[in-house]
């Protein structure tokens, strides 16, 4: 059978029935198929007659089939006979690292745990002489069975025509570094488009994970740089093989990543007592009548309190309860009569003609800027990390824009200031601007507002000296403008130099009453 005749319903080796075409590129087609003998889904690659690397693909698949690491995709069959070539492998259900990151931020150590498993599996593959060379977030899976799976070992490279160089181990170590960078930042440091935002750069160099995302542990930042950038960090050498990456990540806690499901977990609704109050399965149930949980001690969510009334029995208790109720009713009646009498005798001047009202308040509203960019009108190149600027207005306090690093707090005496400029789209009234700075003290910032994006048209309307953390800049008088600038005149220390950092900027405009 010629591969040109392959279509849904085609059976290969009298066993594998092709069902759904998943992807097609460069003469190779990926199918979801059914193994009719074992009644299970499988992944099948078929190839057009023009595909020139069939021999290399089949050879790579057969070599990969010899590996037994459960974290690597299992290859079931590979053939090139009578004009028919195909590779049958395990069908993996679950979410890729790309899927996990697309659903929201992943905890750094949770993401690193996935990469640690992949590094260990890839180290085993390298011991057998096999490489990957195409490590992307789509190839790292968290399966529905709660395991890690690395897809495409050897086969991906053969399909794409990627050949291992003299230092293939270093190439895969860098690939693991890219996966780790993506896992802890949500950005992709590779040249190809993999569906994630590109990693921001600083002076032409990829920013470190901690520069991009707050909360990344220092040791993960160092491991990522040692693998991805192939440079020493914290006195440790670069990580040049998957085994070295695996060893560096060996101490990463291995919490289970979020379960693969689009539905929230079912609520554990029950009629009995909360957890901790039911009898252990190994113990007999308590004897006696079932307690009334509504009249007993009150449950506050974590322990039993004493707020509920205690149940009483006996004739004397009933009489006592009746007397107490009658006394309470009498006291309420007397109190109501006294209050009504006092209100009736009150002077007329003390009455309000209508309910009093507090002064109308105007609650500020948040106005989202149209764009943000680095503002460096006094510099030689007129720009200041413009690619990082959107991170200061993305609503995520873990991302940041920062200035270039300078040799002194006064910007190396090169200029009077540098900052971040927001274009609000049109002139708006400004009530205040909330800025989240870095934690190191020593920043001096000004709030400038104007209707043109040039320094001469911007007026300083508020300032803060020697500050850090969360700062609210409030103009002394009514201020309106289209452009809002956070202007650094002094910078706080940063790693032996000085750098201004802004995690988030929020512009507030007066709201209506």
What's the SSE blueprint?
Elements lengths: L10 E2 L3 E10 L2 E8 L4 E8 L6 H11 L10 E7 L2 E7 L3 E3 H6 L5 H20 L12 E4 L4 E3 L4 H6 L7 H18 L15 E2 L2 E2 L2 H4 L5 H11 L13 H7 L66 H31 L19 E3 L3 E5 L25 E2 L15 E13 L1 E6 L5 E8 L8 E9 L2 E4 L5 E12 L2 E2 L2 E2 L2 E9 L4
Q: How much is the radius of gyration in Å?
A: 34 Å
Helix proportion of residues, in percent?
10-25%
Shape: globular
Mean pLDDT rating = 82
What class, by secondary structure content?
alpha+beta
Count of discrete alpha- or pi-helical segments spanning 4 or more residues: 9
Instruction: State the separation between the terminal residues, measured CA to CA.
Output: 77 Å
Residue stretches low in confidence (pLDDT < 50, at least 5 long) are 257-315, 341-361
Trace the largest sheet across and list its strands: 1-2-3-4-6-5
What kind of sheet is the major sheet? 6 strands, antiparallel
Quote the beta fraction: 25-35%
Strand tally: 23
GO molecular function, one term: kinase activity
Keywords: Kinase, Receptor, Transferase
Region (Disordered): 250-311, 341-364
Domain Protein kinase: 16-299
């Amino acid at each position: 059978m010629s591969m040109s005749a392959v279509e849904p319903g085609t059976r290969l080796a009298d066993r594998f029935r092709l069902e759904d075409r998943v992807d097609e590129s460069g003469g190779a087609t990926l199918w979801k198929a059914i193994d009719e003998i074992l009644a299970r889904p499988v992944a099948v690659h078929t190839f057009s007659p023009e595909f020139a690397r069939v021999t290399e693909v089949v050879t790579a698949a057969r070599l990969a089939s010899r590996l037994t690491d459960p974290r690597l995709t299992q290859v079931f069959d590979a053939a090139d006979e009578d004009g028919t070539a195909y590779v049958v492998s395990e069908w993996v259900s679950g979410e890729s690292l790309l899927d996990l990151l697309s659903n929201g931020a992943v905890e750094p150590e949770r993401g690193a745990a996935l990469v640690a498993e992949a590094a260990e599996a890839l180290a085993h593959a390298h011991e057998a002489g096999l490489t990957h060379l195409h490590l992307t977030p789509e190839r790292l899976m968290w399966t529905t069975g709660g395991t890690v799976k690395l897809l495409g070992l050897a086969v991906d490279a053969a399909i794409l025509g990627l050949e291992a160089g003299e230092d293939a181990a270093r190439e895969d170590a860098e690939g693991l570094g890219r996966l780790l960078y993506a896992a802890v930042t949500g950005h992709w440091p590779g040249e190809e488009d993999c569906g994630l935002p590109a990693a921001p750069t600083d002076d032409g160099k990829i920013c470190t994970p901690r520069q991009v995302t707050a909360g990344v542990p220092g040791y993960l930042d160092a491991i990522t740089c040692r693998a991805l950038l192939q440079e020493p960090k914290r006195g440790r050498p670069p990580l040049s093989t998957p085994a070295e990456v695996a060893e560096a990540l060996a101490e990463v806690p291995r919490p289970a990543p979020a379960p693969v499901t689009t539905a929230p977990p079912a609520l554990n609704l029950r009629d009995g007592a909360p957890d901790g109050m039911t009898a252990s399965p190994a113990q007999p149930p308590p004897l006696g009548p079932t307690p009334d949980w509504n009249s007993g001690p009150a449950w506050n969510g974590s322990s039993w309190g004493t707020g509920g009334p205690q149940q009483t029995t006996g004739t004397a208790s009933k009489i006592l309860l009746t007397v107490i109720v009658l006394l309470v009713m009498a006291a309420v009646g007397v109190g109501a009569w006294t209050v009504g009498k006092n209100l009736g005798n009150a002077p007329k001047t003390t009455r309000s003609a209508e309910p009093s009202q507090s002064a109308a308040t105007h609650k500020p509203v948040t106005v989202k800027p149209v764009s943000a960019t680095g503002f460096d009108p006094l510099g030689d190149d007129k720009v200041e990390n413009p690619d990082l600027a959107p991170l200061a207005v993305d609503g995520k306090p873990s991302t940041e824009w920062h200035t270039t690093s300078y040799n002194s707090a006064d910007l190396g005496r090169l200029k009077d200031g540098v900052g971040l400029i927001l274009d609000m789209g049109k002139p708006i009234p400004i009530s205040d601007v909330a800025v989240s700075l870095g934690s190191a003290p020593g920043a001096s910032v000004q709030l400038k507002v104007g209707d043109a994006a040039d320094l001469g048209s911007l007026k300083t309307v508020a300032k803060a000296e020697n500050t850090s953390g969360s700062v609210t800049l409030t103009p002394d008088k009514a201020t309106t403008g289209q452009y809002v600038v956070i202007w650094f005149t002094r910078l706080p220390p940063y790693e032996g130099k000085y750098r201004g950092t802004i995690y988030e900027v929020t512009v507030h405009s007066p709201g209506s009453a």
